[in-house]
Design a protein that fits this description.
This protein is 8% helix and 37% strand. The protein is mainly beta. Strands 11-12-13-14-15-19-18-17-16 form a nine-stranded antiparallel β-sheet. The longest helix has 21 residues.
Length: 451
């Protein structure tokens, strides 16, 4: 069989990356034998993708492998059951089990100026900042029809809700990717993380978790063994943080903010010159002033990073997606690597203040992966990774053996994909197209491949 350029590069990438993931995940076994390569698709993938029409609208929004179907719903402007219009800029998301439905909590990365006519999502009295238009919406999805049964605003008055992450306590941490505040005319200071309970059927009390820091947040992943939150920061020079709460069931009660450092390599720069599979001993340095004076934060939005760096913390390139799985924390560097195409890092917790940092994937070519962003660990332990590149954007898979394959392609436009997650039963995969703002639910024989 002749291989085209994309197929050749995928095979080359697999050979380069395989040792990294094989070593990491050798204790795991596949739930069934791998598939043979088919039309250039690597073992563990699902075969070639082709345009598919939505089951409920007939639109050709995605390209998918043979045998997979999808629905589309929750579009920007659609009226929700609570009487509010669906906000735009769909981003991070997670799925929870709830009273016979799949409950999605979805971020909206809304950026707006604090104009007098600005209205928050839903009840002004329950918003964090009435002049901020971001927040989250909650959608109850029928597990059979994959269509909305109920939807409503679930946090209001926050800003630039980019990504976040689920917690073992069945809640969603939504993260603000901005540090605007009263100096810019807003009603409150922004740049915090907030908790949204999946059990709430309306707007939650918007309480900022100030001890987790004020900065340009991206995503969050919680280690269920310890309750520690790992948090990424979307800046060209960024840190990987963790928040150690005093009470893992009540995150707003306080805790300690720390930043990762490489042991014996003060101020280590991970952005270039790395090799797939390289491992570093990691330690954590404490951020003494997680929530600096607003004037300082607004002058220097990376106050947390600067303090951590001064104490020897490591630098990453634009840390975005973050997810817990396989006993580890996975974090994506969107433009890290020698070719600025993206890296996927894995942190393996060890003792309370030490662990292992490992580079499990660095893209060698945009045809393999370009600008990875949100990700999740799939039910079978692989990674599903959203792209946010400059051209066509794909949902890529990274198998447990380190092979990269394409699972879905945005056939509608060049918008980024975001918010990838699986339903608790593993039968439905969800993600968002940020523009024009819509959510898709995909189902099929996931067991025949790595997801």
């Amino acid at each position: 069989m002749q291989l085209d350029r994309r197929s050749f590069l995928q095979v080359a990438s697999a050979a380069a990356a395989a040792p990294a993931l094989t070593g990491l995940l050798s204790r795991l076994t596949l739930s069934r034998p791998e598939l043979a390569a088919d039309a250039g698709q690597i073992a563990g993938g699902y075969g070639p993708i082709r345009p598919v029409k939505s089951e409920n609208t007939g639109e050709e929004i995605l390209a998918l492998p043979e045998g997979f179907k999808y629905t589309v719903f929750g579009r920007t402007g659609d009226m929700m059951k609570d009487g509010n219009a669906t906000p735009g800029a769909h981003d991070g998301m997670a799925a929870f089990a709830h009273a016979g439905v799949i409950r999605l909590i979805r971020n909206h990365e809304v950026r707006n100026q604090p104009t007098p006519d600005r209205k928050p999502i839903g009840d002004v009295a329950k918003s964090y900042d009435p002049l901020a238009g971001g927040g989250t919406s909650t959608l109850d999805i029928d597990p059979v029809t994959r269509l909305i049964k109920n939807d409503f605003a679930s946090i209001s008055g926050t800003m630039v809700n980019c990504a976040g992450g689920p917690t073992p306590g069945q809640s969603w941490i939504t993260c603000e990717e901005t540090v605007v505040g009263q100096a810019q005319g807003y009603g409150k200071e922004h740049g915090y993380i907030f908790e949204v309970s999946s059990k709430s059927n309306g707007l939650v009390d918007p309480t900022p978790i100030r001890a987790a820091g004020r900065r340009v947040h991206e995503a969050c992943a919680t280690d269920p063994e310890t309750g520690i939150l790992y948090i990424t920061e979307d800046r060209g020079t960024s840190g990987l943080y963790r928040y150690v709460p005093v009470d893992k069931d009540h995150l707003a009660k306080g805790g300690e903010l720390q930043m990762l450092a490489v042991k014996g390599k003060a101020q280590f720069d991970t952005r270039k010159g790395q090799t797939n599979g390289v491992k570093y001993d990691a330690v954590w340095v404490t951020i003494d002033t997680p929530d600096p004076d607003p004037a300082k934060t607004e002058r220097m939005e990376q106050a947390n990073y600067s303090e951590g760096l001064a104490k020897g913390g490591a630098t990453f390139a634009r840390l975005e997606g973050c997810w817990y799985g396989n006993g580890s924390i996975y974090a994506v560097s969107t433009n890290g690597g020698d070719k600025n195409l993206g890296q996927v890092w894995r942190y393996i917790p060890g003792t309370r203040n030490e662990g292992i940092l490992e580079l499990i994937f660095e893209s060698p070519d945009p045809e393999i992966m370009e600008s990875p962003d949100n990700l999740c660990v799939t039910p079978r332990g692989a990674l599903a990774v959203c792209e946010d590149g400059g051209g066509d954007n794909f949902l890529r898979g990274i198998t447990r053996e380190g092979r990269v394959f394409s699972f879905a392609k945005n056939n509608l436009n060049k918008s980024e994909l975001a918010g990838v997650c699986f339903s608790p039963d593993g039968n439905t995969l969800f993600f968002n197209l940020q523009t024009p703002g819509l959510t898709v639910a995909i189902w099929g024989d996931f067991a025949r491949g790595s997801f």
